[in-house]
TrEMBL record:
This is Thiaminase II. InterPro entries: Haem_Oase-like_multi-hlx (IPR016084). SUPFAM superfamilies: Heme oxygenase-like. It comes from Epilithonimonas mollis. The lineage of its organism: Bacteria, Pseudomonadati, Bacteroidota, Flavobacteriia, Flavobacteriales. It comes from the Bacteria.
């Protein structure tokens, strides 16, 4: 179904953004 595909896409996008956010926060912590 199209809805399931959209949900999967949204999940992948949000988890990727979350990973980038935590990765950036971790790297920032190393600098401080």
């Amino acid at each position: 179904p199209a809805i399931r595909q959209k949900m999967e896409q949204a999940y992948v996008t949000s988890s990727r953004m979350e990973y980038k956010f935590w990765d950036a926060a971790y790297n920032l912590k190393k600098w401080i």
